From TrEMBL:
Gene3D superfamilies for this protein: 3.40.50.1100, Biosynthetic Threonine Deaminase, Domain 3 (3.40.1020.10)
Protein name: Threonine dehydratase
Subcellular location field: Plastid, Chloroplast
InterPro entries registered for this protein in UniProt: ACT-like_dom_sf (IPR045865), Ser/Thr_Dehydratase (IPR050147), Ser/Thr_deHydtase_PyrdxlP-BS (IPR000634), TD_ACT-like (IPR001721), TD_ACT-like_sf (IPR038110), Thr_deHydtase_biosynth (IPR005787), TrpB-like_PALP (IPR001926), TrpB-like_PALP_sf (IPR036052)
Keyword Methyltransferase on entry: no
Catalytic activity: L-threonine = 2-oxobutanoate + NH4(+)
Highest classification ranks of the organism: Eukaryota, Viridiplantae, Streptophyta, Embryophyta, Tracheophyta
Keyword Ribosomal protein included in the entry's annotation: no
Native source organism of the sequence: Solanum pinnatisectum (tansyleaf nightshade)
Entry's EC annotation: 4.3.1.19
């Protein structure tokens, strides 16, 4: 396999499309299946982008390859930039069996053929025909019931009578519970103790037997596997099983029936079950359609695994898009992605939030964060490569949004779309300076502003948002500020500022040996007490800011008073605590707002 990192500064070639005719032997089983789809697809040869850099990676898709823990960091990649995977093709006989099983999957006992809707506003803005596959319209508001039901429907009567078990904090849990209800099978769902109550209640409403265990998904899954072995229950994986993959692959059959001549299908990637199934279908029936996975920058486990040539496990995972917050992709799914998919694109949380707003603007529907991931990736890809006049499909995978997360989505949505900018400007603390500042903002509308006088600084800091119609207007305004000795920085893509720092403007204090850390707390009772048991009263806590983000984890900003001679001891204690953390004193935005 070769991994190609693309960084072109121009759009794809716009050479005329050419049609490839396929000769079909109708006497073979494969030929008969191909004949079924002959009128559904006109295969076209697509021009490829030329790579600027290329490095050779491990070529064998070995599902027993080592698992390596790595930081969630990639080389410089822009949102929407295609990280190309040259697919190896896979075993033809195995893929043919996947195709047969996908076409025969009995998922419509519980699922509907979800609509493929043209997003008119997105299409107009991007200059393409942008279609959204509405899996959020399923009865459990997610695609996950397809894979769960397909695997469970193939169990023997004896296996169903004993019952099934899985571990999940989200949509897979509801899929297994619904499948158990329809198949008259007891479904036990092990969920982390940090799971929001709304999700626990949803699983119970579908007849699921909920067991709360552990603080993390890994702990819940370990317990589920133990119960499976001890009680003879069949474990239903959330993504890493052929039966699950094939059930998710039925989405590919529907897209192919609903639309022809597709440039690319964008698929959200967590563990990889959905993209593996969609690719297994498309690469046999419509091989010239690109299958592109989308991950958040902070949860890029599949992208990093393809980059390294074997599965890697992320040390920390951003849980903003909690439905795809997977530290380690599956063995089967990784192998299928190596064999079949065209590449991956990455997006930020602001881009995901912007996509949620785009879908809301289209039809007043609210997707969950992971549900909007593929839409964000498809839009970013079209903008990065200036794709025009093509059919683009993005899978909206779910709509189980935690209501308390909406405020952060709203905060980030405008920034992600470029329609808002978050700025910091320093002005001299003297009468009339604030009025001068407002005058320089000019015609740009100020939508939020935070300022407080402080005698500790010669210059005052103003943190504010402005509405942006044209990027050139924003650049012109920043230029005027800087030329008037009002140093101005664009902090639009700093989540630390969005989450915490805008609330702390003017809050600096002259405290010796003060440091600041951003901790990731599990959202569960006792998390703060556990934290304080480690650090207090050993060290003085000088600042704490927290707000529920509607997530399984929470970002908490904490200040400590720690002499330099005790820093090693502090770091050792922080490491033992087990909560991911980052020292913010080296963060430029932090130093602007809080530090002296």
């Amino acid at each position: 396999m070769e991994f190609l990192c693309l960084a072109p500064t121009h759009s794809f070639s716009t050479n005329p499309k050419s049609t490839k005719n396929i000769s079909i032997d109708c006497t073979s089983t494969m030929g008969r299946i191909m004949k079924m789809y002959q009128n559904m697809r006109c295969s076209t040869v697509r021009p490829s982008a030329l790579p600027l850099k290329m490095s050779r990676i491990v070529s064998v898709p070995d599902i027993s390859a080592p698992v390596v823990s790595v930081p969630a960091i990639l080389p410089e990649v822009d949102p929407g930039e295609l990280i190309v995977n040259n697919p190896t093709g896979g075993d033809r006989d195995e893929l043919f069996q996947y195709l047969v099983d996908i076409l025969a999957a009995p998922v419509y006992d519980v699922a509907i053929e979800s609509p493929l809707e043209l997003a008119n506003k997105l299409s107009t803005r991007l200059g393409v025909k942008f279609y959204i596959k509405r899996e959020d319209k399923q009865s459990v508001f997610s695609f996950k019931l397809r894979g769960a039901y397909n695997m469970m429907s193939n169990l023997s009567k004896e296996e169903l009578a004993k019952g099934v078990i899985t571990a999940s904090a989200g949509n897979h849990a509801q899929g297994v519970a619904l499948a158990g209800q329809r198949l008259d099978c007891v479904a036990t769902i092990v969920m982390p103790e940090t799971t929001p109550q709304i999700k626990v209640d949803a699983v119970k409403a579908l007849g699921g037997n909920v067991v709360l265990h552990g603080e993390t998904f890994d702990e819940a899954q370990t317990h589920a596997l133990e119960l499976s072995e001890n009680n003879g229950l069949t474990f239903i994986p959330p993504f890493d099983a052929p039966g699950v993959i094939k059930g998710q692959g039925t989405i590919g059959t529907e897209i192919n029936r609903q639309l022809k001549d597709i440039h690319a299908v964008f698929v959200p990637v967590g563990g990889g079950g959905l993209i593996a199934g969609v690719a297994a279908f498309f690469k046999q029936i419509a091989p010239n359609t690109k299958i592109i996975g989308v991950e958040p920058f902070g949860a890029a486990s599949m992208t990093l695994s393809l980059y390294e040539g074997h599965r890697v496990k992320l040390e920390n995972v951003d849980t903003f898009a909690d439905g795809v917050a997977v530290a380690l992709v599956g063995e089967y799914t990784f192998a299928k992605c190596q064999e079949l998919i065209d590449g991956m694109v990455l997006v930020g949380n602001d881009g995901i939030s912007s996509a949620i707003k785009d879908v809301y603007d289209e039809g007043r529907n609210i997707l969950e964060t992971s549900g909007a991931l593929a839409i964000a990736g498809a839009a970013a890809y079209c903008e990065f490569y200036k794709i025009k006049n093509e059919n683009i499909v993005a899978i909206a995978s779910g709509a189980n949004m935690d209501f308390s997360k909406l405020h952060k989505v709203t905060e980030l949505a405008g920034l992600g779309s470029g329609k808002e900018a978050l700025l910091a400007t320093f002005v001299i603390e003297q009468p009339g300076s604030f009025k001068t500042f407002v005058g320089l903002v000019g015609s740009l509308n100020i939508s939020e502003l935070t300022y407080r006088f402080t005698s500790e600084r010669k210059n005052a800091l103003i943190l504010y948002r402005v509405d942006v119609d044209e990027k050139s207007d924003l650049e012109e305004m920043i230029g005027k500020m800087n030329s008037s000795d009002m140093n101005t920085l664009n902090l639009s893509h700093s989540e630390l500022v969005v989450d915490h720092l805008k609330h702390l403007v003017g809050g600096s204090a002259n405290i010796s040996d003060e440091i600041f850390c951003e901790f990731t707390f599990p959202e569960k009772a006792g998390a703060l007490s556990k934290f304080l048991d480690v650090f207090s009263p050993r060290w003085n806590i000088t600042l704490c800011r927290y707000r529920d983000q509607g997530d399984i984890n929470a970002s908490v900003l904490v200040g400590f008073q720690i002499p330099q001679s005790e820093m090693d001891e502090f770091k050792n204690q922080a490491d033992k605590l087990g909560y991911p953390y980052e020292l913010d004193n080296i963060n430029e935005a932090f130093n602007l707002v809080v530090a002296e």
